[in-house]
Amino acid sequence: MGTLAAGFRLQLRFYRSYPDLLVPLLTAPLYGVVFTLVMRDGHRPDLVGSASLAPFYMSLWWFALFSGGWIIQTDRWEGTLEHLVSAPAAFAAVVLGRISATLLPAGFAFTETWVFARYVLDAPVTIRHWTVFLASFTVTLFAMAATALLMAALFVLARNAVTFSNSASFPFYVLGGILVPVAVLPGWLQPFTRPVFLSWSADLLRAAVAPGPVPHPALGLGAIAVLGVAAGLAGGVVLSHILRRLRTRGELAIT
Amino acid sequence: MPVSTTPRPALRGPGPSEHPGDPAQATLESLGRSVGAPAPGTAPAVEVTDLVREFTRRRKSPARALNGLTLSVPEGEVHGLLGPNGAGKTTLVRILSTVLLPTAGRAAVCGHDVVREDRAVRRLVGVVFGGDRGLYTRLTARENLEFWGALQKVPARLLRARSSELLDRLGLAEVADRRVEGYSRGMRQRLHLARGLVGEARVLFLDEPTMGMDPVAAREFRTLIGELRGEGRTIVLATHDMAEAQALCDRVSFVRDGEVVATRSPHALTDLAAGVEFDDLDDAALALLTDLPGVTEVTVGQGTTRVRTDSEEALSSVLATAVGQGATRMRTLQPTLEDVYVQLIGDRGLKV
């Protein structure tokens, strides 16, 4: 627990020292304005609510990709990874603690996005199904943390991780049904959206603010949880593999 | 760099394992007990046998950094590793601190294998790699130290006080709440040291610990090492600084091309470069001395002849022979560790 807390505190201190890591909190309202105006101008009032909340998922993904995903690789560049690995504390616990801290700004991003959508953009985002909303929000944050762990490990292995992370934003916004519901996407694309936990999360959030019953909430929650567990397990396996590989090759530090 | 006023133990006093009643031993008893480590004194602090480490290179044969290195360091000893760049010192320290896996051979810390029991080893060791990197530069020294202390499993109730004490001990108290990015190289090096000490490690690996320090700070560092030895810790010190090694180490090992070529006390090592300088040696005497066993080097200068030997016995033989040949004006040379270094490692110039 002490190691998790130390990692958590470290990440919060990084947010204080590197405010640029929190840039999605600045851009979220701006994206909200753009997406809402596009839907209103396109005479799609049915999509205004989901479009106004889309910046939350964009922020969430951004934190997973850039804040969580680069944790290990940055430590390699800084020469701190050797010290982390040679410490008695479990390295995975440090990483998990730091990734957990990324959930805080992600949670704040939702509050910011919702308040802006509700009171500035006057979008129909009143939460009507609190249980579904809270459950989906919780498992979504868990899945995001697990995905960040997987990416943090993969980015060490991938030679072109920078290119991937820089270009992986909008494709996932589309596949995650963030801007428009998955049902609106072309038929051939829809199967690719299901392995992306964001697509289930976005569906549930839309349903939680819509009138009428929520269709198949257990299925959606289960899918997010399963995808999160799978990402977490894969992240653990890859993390263990890369540590062994870096120790074998003498590549814990990048000089 | 102010240091504590604790009386400094004799520099080359016997190790604490040889003195069960020594208060230092009591301190040692408290170190590393919680991890199932062998009782102090029952296993060497460091035991390395035929250690090999190769690094693969693209389109080239592997580079062999360690070539069957063997070394044993008893508990409580300050042991120096001396050698040129690329000799394998840092590779050895990295393997012993579990951040690098050996290609072959065995290495153990306090009886724990560094590969199979790496978690146990990590609870016993503190590491100072040195250099500018390895710190979170946008955090303050105190924040850095508290983070690394938590990773060393220092109880939360002790961590803040211990961090403050170490920062004070290493002369960083006044800048403890400033970001590390504004620190000089020497200040960063002190923070590296503080990190290595925050976990109360039983075995400390210090790789070029005074690199970047000014002479006064380096002198205080030596005092600190003496105090740490007084507390019963084992210290393995990789350094280029001969004066540092001579002043601090109970024994030093010369490392060349991934192997240990000699391990002795600094005093015994200097015997390896013992010598005498003559003012009036004729050619006949010179020829005789050159052929004597144990003579390693004869240098003829302007009016003087320097003869180096590899032992005190050889030196006595040289003196007797020279006197027998009529030599009357001579003086013994006081070899330094640097002389031994050059003799054992060779003058490689700027080659690595």
From TrEMBL, chain A:
It holds the Pfam family ABC2_membrane. InterPro entries: ABC-2_transporter, ABC2_TM. Its main location: membrane. The keyword Membrane applies. GO terms for molecular function: ABC-type transporter activity. Residues 11-208 form the ABC-2 type transporter transmembrane domain. It is found in: Membrane. The keyword Membrane applies. Keywords: Membrane, Transmembrane, Transmembrane helix. The chain crosses the membrane at residues 21-39, 51-72, 84-110, 130-158, 170-189, 218-239. One of its GO terms (cellular component) is membrane. It is a multi-pass membrane protein. This is ABC-2 type transporter transmembrane domain-containing protein.
